[in-house]
Amino acid sequence: MASTEGLVPITRSFLASFYDKYPFQPLSDDASRLSSQIRSMVSDFYNDSPLTQGETLLVKEVDTPPPHKIDENMWKNREQIEEILFLLERSHWPPLLQQQSTPEDTELALVLGHLKDKFQNTMKILQAFQSKNSENIFNTVLTYMPQDFRGTLIRQQRERSERNKQAEVDALVNSGGSIRDRYALLWNQQMERRRQLAQLGCATGVYKTLVKYLVGVPQIESIVVLLDFIRQLNDDEGPMEEQRQRYGPPLYSLTTLWQTKQQLTVLEQAVDVYTSEFERFIKFISEVFANSPFFISAEEAGAIESRKNDEHKEISIPAGKTHEVSLMVESINSYIAWDFSLAPGKMNLDIGFSMEYTNASGDKQLILPYRRYESDQGNFCTCMAGNYKLIWDNSYSTFFKKSTTLQGGLYTSGGGGGGSCN
Q1: Torsion of Cα atoms, 40 then 45 then 51 then 54, to 10°
Q2: Exposed end of the chain (fewer CB within 10 Å): N or C?
Q3: Cα-based angle 97, 99, 105 (whole degrees, multiple of 5)
Q4: What is the pLDDT of residues 303-352, one digit of tens each?
């Protein structure tokens, strides 16, 4: 069993820095050109021929913005690729085309077969990506759990759960459910997995203690870090939002391009652009996922957070006064960082600095002892939830105010800032 000691879950700030190493080359200009061109053609088609009820539903779907979450986009692309493959089956061709009574029909049949092969290959790549990504996350969680019979039980429970979910899908298909119905069920099952993980990640009190007992994690800090990771992994506004902001737009464009071309005869050029660009995106994002960690050191997380705002704000502390900054820490393994220095002057001046902690009962504890500095830079990883107070003390000065430039703040294991020295 791996240890999470000294580690915190990834943060959005960390991912922003990490993703800078992996810029995605923009989509081909053909993607937007073809999307606009096809929409224009479809509009003309609608004007010439009344829409059926099913076609009307498809039009509404085309006008719906692509899903924001990358994994939901992947499922949507998978659903619609399967819809296309269904339509490209020979048995679903128009009767005259099936007969191939003319050279034109024979040539069109060859083109459709070629396009079907392209979509089948893209589908296999997408399915392999989803399966590998899901297994990687599960194995990461399992790494921090006991590697004995309890780990085996967790795997067996997961396998039973997946068999039950597959049985649901099979029952739907056997009852005549459509491809759309099947993928709606698959996505609901995916969301149910997330809800279960989120409930585990938000566990508190007796339940968290029970989880600690069952998985055999020896330190309560370890299970807290693991549960925080699980919770953040499923948080709509958590670190994964950086992934959506960074890599979502090109995927959204591909999803939109895909949606438009299913409304009319499949265009070979559009299929070439869609399949090649989509496969390129999957290959790219697979590399990003493979190299992106789930946990980082508290020191690294704090350093990244402290670099988010490189502006130092000047604070004037009058003689005989103090300047205090309170930081409310809601979970352990939060990270407090500071950087300050006195403005240069004719005299060598200093200022007192200390940190104290107050728990929920109001009991105070000195974390950093009082000391006088001209400047200081440091950090502190918390081991208790509660209120932490940074104190700059000029009470000993009778005549001189102190102008101090401050930078710093609080990083929490939930990825947000609880306060700032600014």
Answers
A1: -70
A2: C
A3: 45
A4: 666 555 445 678 889 999 998 888 888 777 677 878 888 877 656 688 99
